[in-house]
Design a protein that fits this description.
Blueprint (H helix, E strand, L loop, with lengths): L7 E4 L13 E8 L7 E7 L5 E8 L3 E2 L14
Antiparallel strand pairs: 1-2, 1-5, 2-3, 3-4
């Protein structure tokens, strides 16, 4: 599944060297396609006041889209 640009995504693995944890939310910045390799994405992660914490490039499999449960509204979970 390809992610649309500038969407929020959720990290599914810890990146301790960048002080990022699974569950952190970031914004897709760029898609990277290299023949023979998994598609990758550059993702920018922010703190609660909007300062950039990190910009990292990770494989697509390390990301997922948010669900209603991530937003705290369990009434919308199907």
């Amino acid at each position: 599944m390809d992610f649309p640009p500038y969407k929020d995504v959720i990290l599914t693995r810890d990146l301790l060297e960048e002080d990022l944890r699974a569950g952190d939310v970031g914004t897709l910045v760029e898609r990277h396609v290299v023949r023979g390799m998994e598609t990758g994405y550059s993702v920018e992660f922010f703190d609660m006041v909007g300062n950039t914490r990190a910009v990292v490039t990770v494989p697509q499999s390390w990301l997922r889209l948010p669900t209603p449960a991530d937003r705290g509204d369990v009434s919308k979970i199907v």
